[in-house]
Amino acid sequence: MTEFETVDIDDNICQFQYVKELNDLDNEVTFKVYSIPLNEMRWFSYRVKIINEDLIKSEHLSINYNTEFSKKGIPEKIIEIASSELNSNIQSSPISFQNGNYLTEPSRKAWERLVARNENAVLDSENDCFIYKLTD
Fold it and tell me: What is the dihedral of CA 59, 87, 79, 48, to 10 degrees?
């Protein structure tokens, strides 16, 4: 497992670890975030779909009913990690409802926080989504 730190809503430093699970059949990758010390029954998950070599689509962010992962800054950090690990830009789901596909309110707020604190994250109004651009 790989460790990382976040800053929670109260400016406390939090430590987590994650694993990356590949699903070649669906061209998806799930990042599972665990607390330190590890409790394998409780995790935060972030699933992305690989579109092509330059773009992955953010599919699902979830605390999986585990409130200890709430307000810890995990979504913003795991988007950055996923971009780096997969060497690709990340696109959110559409902000507006489109054919059953849309950005949920908690995910939208996470993307907005990321845009506010990281210049690599932008609102792409033309395509109705957020983009996290891979750093060089």
Answer: 10
Give the pTM. 0.91
Distance CA 62, CA 69 (A): 9
DSSP state of 100: T
Taking only the tens place, the pLDDT of each residue in 41-78 is 999 999 999 999 889 999 999 988 999 999 999 999 99
- The encoded tokens of residue 75 equal 């979504």
Handedness of CA 118, 7, 82, 65 (dihedral sign): negative
Domain 2-132 has CATH 3.40.30: no
Distance CA 54, CA 109 (A): 25
Question: Any bridge partners for residue 17, and if so which?
Answer: 3, 34
Cis-peptide into 37, omega within 30 deg? yes
Residue type for 15, please? Q
Domain boundaries along the sequence of the chain: 2-132
How many CB atoms within 10 Å of residue 60? 14
